[in-house]
């Protein structure tokens, strides 16, 4: 007997695996608690650039707003309910922009790209809500004395 889709549930390919768990469809057995999940550390830095450098990366009907300031955010998340307590890391790159549609306009963040180090949130975020997500190996956040530190290994050489 062929399977049938459950009304109101989210499916991803291959659909015969059944409704897909994710951030917008948390399994009942996950015991989600929005007061404790996820735990998040956010580190950001901004810099001023040339407007022309950003304009070539925004689509039609978007314009820059204010100074051409790019913000890079590192999001370190742990204890995520829908990931069975696991976590992942994201890097967002955005700048202020305005969208002018035929009837409406909105000012906000133009999210140019998000790098993440786990497939589950990449797949669900791209497919379900259209976020510009790509995979990247992102080093873990480390505490060194009273400071937070990022490091990476390039050609076997540790770079602080």
Describe what you observe in this structure.
It is built from two helices and ten strands; from the N terminus they run E-H-E-E-E-E-H-E-E-E-E-E. It is mainly beta and 160 residues long.
Q: How would you describe this structure in keywords?
A:
single chain; 160 residues; mainly beta; 6-stranded mixed β-sheet; two-stranded antiparallel ribbon; 2 helices
Task: Itemize the secondary structure elements and their pairings.
Blueprint: E1 39-48, H1 51-55, E2 62-64, E3 69-78, E4 88-100, E5 105-116, H2 119-129, E6 133-135, E7 142-144, E8 147-149, E9 152-154, E10 157-159
Parallel strand pairs: 5-6
Antiparallel strand pairs: 1-3, 2-4, 3-4, 4-5, 7-8, 9-10
Structure at a glance:
10% of the residues lie in helices and 39% in strands. It is built from two helices and ten strands; from the N terminus they run βαββββαβββββ.
Residue share in helices?
10-25%
The radius of gyration computed from the alpha-carbon positions, rounded to a whole number of angstroms, is 19 Å
Biggest pleated-sheet summary: 6 strands, mixed
Mean pLDDT: 82
SS field, number of helical segments: 2
Low-confidence stretches: 153-160
Strand percentage, roughly?
A: 35-45%
- Based on secondary structure, the structural category is mainly beta
Order of helices and strands: EHEEEEHEEEEE
Q: Give the strand tally.
A: 10
Shape annotation: globular
Q: End-to-end distance, in Å?
A: 58 Å
């Amino acid at each position: 007997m062929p399977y049938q889709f459950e009304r109101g549930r989210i499916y991803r390919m291959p659909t015969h695996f059944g409704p897909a768990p994710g951030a917008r469809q948390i399994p009942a057995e996950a015991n989600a608690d929005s007061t404790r999940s996820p735990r998040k550390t956010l580190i950001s830095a901004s810099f001023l650039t040339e407007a022309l450098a950003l304009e070539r990366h925004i689509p039609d009907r978007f314009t820059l707003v204010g100074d051409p300031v790019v913000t890079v955010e590192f999001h370190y998340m742990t204890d995520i309910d829908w990931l069975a307590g696991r976590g992942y890391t994201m890097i967002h790159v955005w700048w202020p922009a305005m969208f002018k549609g035929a009837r409406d306009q909105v000012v906000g963040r133009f999210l140019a790209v998000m790098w993440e180090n786990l497939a589950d949130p990449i797949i669900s975020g791209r497919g379900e809500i259209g976020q510009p997500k790509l995979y990247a190996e992102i080093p873990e956040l480390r505490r060194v004395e009273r400071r937070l530190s990022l490091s990476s290994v390039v050609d076997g050489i540790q770079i602080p």
